[in-house]
Amino acid sequence: MGRILFLLLLVLVAAAVVIPYEFKPGMYLGGTVEAAPADFSFVNDREKYDTVLVETPGIAGLPQVHVIWAIGIDDAIYVFGEEEGRWRSAAVEAGELRMRVGDAVYELKVGLMTNASEEQLQALHDTYRAKYNPEYDRIIGEALGRPPEPADLSIALRLTAM
């Protein structure tokens, strides 16, 4: 009986480490790899796709999976996080990542938005606000210490088909 209890506890601990949950990273992405669609705007349906999973290289070469917000505009998905955050830095360094949206996994290249126009940043800001408000203004505003502005999204990552 003790051995069964130990094995059950071991399985539960392994699941807690491997499977991402809410904003706790894990190591298991799951899903089925598919070709990236020509239009990612379907991601903006918050009822179906409130969050997505991103897989980046982690410590000791093990994958690390994070639960994040994402929006889709035309042929790209846009995500953002702290500029020096581990998952964002790993994605930029690798130049690619895998993202799970629903049951589909897309292999995507990572691009920076450092040269984005004011109009592009405004479109990102408007799309994030349309999908995630009032949480977007509250959470991002608390992190920044002021209301979010379009220029804050210059650190966003633009993810497109490989």
Question: Can you tell me about this structure?
Answer:
- By secondary structure, this protein is an alpha+beta fold.
- The protein has a single domain (2-161), classed as Electron Transport, Fmn-binding Protein, Chain A (Pnp Oxidase, Chain A), CATH 2.30.110.
- The chain contains four helices and eight strands.
- It has helices at residues 2-18, 86-94, 118-132, 135-144, and strands at 32-33, 52-57, 63-68, 71-73, 76-79, 96-101, 104-112, 157-161.
- The model is unreliable at 5-24 (pLDDT under 50).
Distance between the termini: 51 Å
Which stretches of 5+ consecutive residues score pLDDT under 50? 5-24
- Estimate what percentage of residues fall within beta strands: 25-35%
Shape: globular
- Which architecture per CATH? Roll
**Average pLDDT rating:** 86
Estimate percent helicity: 25-40%
User: CATH topology, what is it called?
Assistant: Pnp Oxidase, Chain A
**Topology as H/E string?**
HEEEEEHEEHHE
Structural class comes to: alpha+beta
* Radius of gyration, in angstroms, nearest whole number: 17 Å
Number of strands: 8
**Tally of distinct domains:** 1
* Largest sheet, strands/sense/barrel: 8 strands, mixed
